[in-house]
Amino acid sequence: MRFLPVFLVLCIIQAAADDWPRWMGGKADGVWREEGIRKDLPKEGAPVLWRVPVGWGYSGPAVADGRVYLSDYQRIKGELINNPGTAVTWEGTERLLCLDVETGNPIWKYEAPRKYFLSYPGGPRATPTVAGGLVYFLGGMGNLIVLDARTGEKKWEKDFQKDFGAALPIWGFSAHPLVVGDTVYCLVGGEGSVVVAFDAKTGQVKWKALDAQTQGYCPPSMVKAGGVDQLIIWHSESMNALNPETGEKYWSLPLKPMYGMSVMTPQFSGNKLFASGIGRVGAMIELDDSKPAAKFAWRGKPKTGIYCCNSTPLIVDGIIYGSDIDSSSLIAASVKDGKRFWKTMEPTIAEKYRKGGPHGTVYVTYHKPSGNFWLASESGDLILAKLSKEGYTELGRQHVLEPTNEAYQRPVVWSGPAFAQKSIFMRNDKELVRVDLSEK
What would the mean pLDDT of 408-417 be, rounded to a whole number? Predict the structure, then answer.
């Protein structure tokens, strides 16, 4: 019995350490809930615990059960040409890596030869999703591979192009899989199968739903409103809510970004749902409290709202914070009416590139216990900041990664981070880095 207290302490420590098992964290809301996180970022920087070599990829890391999962692409042939309107061919290997969270040492890897034909070809887009002892890995060409998270043994797979007749999006299959209970929901494409619900363990198709000219790039999400769970699907033409058990449509509202670029994950706050995209297309949607129905609360206009694409904004205390693709700025705007409070390029684009180029990008994460925000910039910087209606206050900055890709004639890191084990995990196209953010 003398060992029981030690056992309990270890259990408490383990329970207190958050995982980040999918895009934007355990609740997919961009909120980091771990206690014991530092509230400063000194000039000498927080300690780097490890760096490991990786290949090309826009996908972010996932952290679960003492392991880090990251997808990448090992290019053998093909040039890095980033033209937004032109696909190029790469030849190489698409991989999913499983690493030890403490050391960064490899545990297992899955790899398969894969020819890319994409605009901005630099690797997989979707962050792996870890749930129920499995890891769901969606590659850039639409190959969904499901593996045992401990051993790497392949359990099942689907080819969205071959199995469903899905058209290849010019910027690749990008929508992170959503796992809820015994079902995995995927943005797929093809006739009647913009969204497909699979049995999470076997891959058997449970149902298919929706048609659209193109499927877009936005991951499925789940909200509870009007007394029911609603599966939110934003494809290239409209915002939709479905019955997650059957695929029956609850409601649909037109919301059509340019170039089919429905990208950001719609953000839910109270009874409101926010989404925006390229072409100054943005809206706050009000969900009915008594039944599954919705209406527009407001639509975006010039100089109001935020028009996000590469990174998803957050809603905190009635304020939307996000990267605006037109101004390349971090903007704060009102949930109530879209009124802008302020904007700044300090955390988005490096100073020498600020005179031109859209899509300035910063990945925003809210640390709830402290009220601080952790930002990962496209320049490879980690930034600690205070954000409020009154303005942007930078508390510290640390350069973690070199930008290894390119967009609009500037070097960029366009990959979202993960926050777990009191650390941040950041990647570029050469390395994955773990930085210790624990409070000393």
Answer: 96
pLDDT, tens digit (0-9, with 9 covering 90-100), for 66-124: 999 999 999 999 999 999 999 999 999 999 999 999 999 999 999 999 999 999 999 99
Backbone φ and ψ for 224, nearest 5 degrees, come out as -115, 120
* Strand pairing class (31-32; 362-367): parallel
The DSSP result for 396-419, as a single string, is EEEE-----EEETTEEE-----EE
C-beta pairs of 392-396 under 8 Å, 24+ apart in sequence = 392/330, 392/332, 392/342, 392/344, 392/346, 392/347, 394/346, 394/347, 395/39, 395/40, 395/41, 396/40, 396/41, 396/42, 396/43
Q: How far is CA 248 from each of CA 48, 176, 209, 230, 286, rounded to the nearest angstrom?
A: 48, 22, 8, 10, 20
Would the pLDDT of 16 be above 90? no
CA distance 122 to 111: 16
Task: Report which of 25, 124, 17 is spatially closest to residue 418, judged by C-alpha positions.
Answer: 25
Distance from chain centroid for Cα 168:
20
Cβ–Cβ < 8 Å for 31, 365: yes
Which tokens in the block code for residue 209? Answer: 């739903």
Question: What is the pLDDT at residue 12?
Answer: 39
Cα angle, residue 219 at apex, residues 320 and 37 outer, rounded to 5°: 55
Tens-place pLDDT, residues 376-395: 999 999 999 999 999 999 99
